[in-house]
Design goal:
The chain is built from 1 helix and 9 strands. It has 167 residues and is mostly beta strands. It has a single domain, classed as Immunoglobulin-like (Sandwich). The strands form 2 sheets. The chain has a 5-stranded antiparallel sheet with strand order 2-9-8-5-6, with no helix packed on it. The protein has a 4-stranded antiparallel sheet with strand order 1-3-4-7, with no helix packed on it. Strand 3 and strand 4 form a beta hairpin. The structure holds copper (II) ion and zinc ion. The site of copper (II) ion has 7 residues, from strand 5 and strand 8.
C-alpha cells in the first residue's frame, strides 16, 4: 500500500516528475498456443518500467524481446519482424558488451505456466520523438524457448507464442 501511494505521488505534480503510462495491452496468443496476459508500461522522468504478466505458458524459460514492427497479425507472429535494433548492434544479453534495444532477456514460467517480469530502463521512452528510444509502434514477443544471448540475430529462442502491439 505504501508503494502504491508513493508511486502516485511521484507521478503527480508535487515532485514535478512527468509520468506517461501505456497500460493494459493484451497479449495475443500465437503459433497455436493459449498464451494470455497483459503488458503495462509507465514512464517516470527518464525511466520506463515494464510489468509483464503472462499465463498459460509451458513451464520453464521463455525469451522476451521487443520486435521492430507493431504488427501481431500473423498467426506465427512473424509480422512483428526482427528484434528492435535501432543502434545496429549484435544480439546479446541486456547490459553486456553488445545487445539490441529489444533484448529484454528471459522470463520463467512456474509449473502453472504463470510468469511475471518487471523490467526497468532509462534506454526507452514512451512516445518521445527519439526513435532510438521510443517503444510505441513496436511489439513485445514471447518465445517458445530460451534466449541463449549468443546466437545471431535471434538468440535461438524458437517460435513466437505471444505478441503484444504497443500502440
Ligand atoms: Cu524475439
Ligand atoms: Zn536481439
Amino acid at each position: 500500500m505504501k508503494i502504491t501511494t508513493l508511486s502516485m505521488l511521484v507521478c503527480g505534480a508535487i515532485f514535478t516528475v512527468s509520468c506517461t503510462t501505456a497500460k493494459n495491452y493484451k497479449i495475443n496468443s500465437k503459433s497455436g498456443t493459449n498464451t494470455q496476459g497483459t503488458a503495462d508500461f509507465v514512464q517516470k522522468g527518464k525511466n520506463v518500467k515494464m510489468d509483464l504478466n503472462v499465463y498459460k505458458l509451458t513451464p520453464g524459460i521463455h525469451a522476451v524481446h521487443i520486435h521492430e514492427k507493431g504488427d501481431c497479425s500473423a498467426t506465427d507472429g512473424s509480422s512483428a519482424g526482427g528484434h528492435w535494433n535501432p543502434s545496429k548492434n549484435d544480439h546479446g544479453k541486456w547490459g553486456s558488451e553488445h545487445f539490441h534495444m529489444g533484448d529484454i532477456g528471459n522470463l520463467v514460467a512456474d509449473k502453472n505456466g504463470t510468469a511475471r517480469l518487471i523490467f526497468d530502463t532509462d534506454k526507452w521512452c514512451i512516445g518521445c520523438k527519439d526513435e532510438s528510444k521510443n517503444i510505441i509502434g513496436k511489439t513485445i514477443i514471447i518465445h517458445a524457448g530460451q534466449d541463449d544471448f549468443h546466437t545471431q540475430p535471434t538468440g535461438n529462442a524458437g517460435g513466437r507464442v505471444g505478441c503484444v502491439e504497443i500502440k
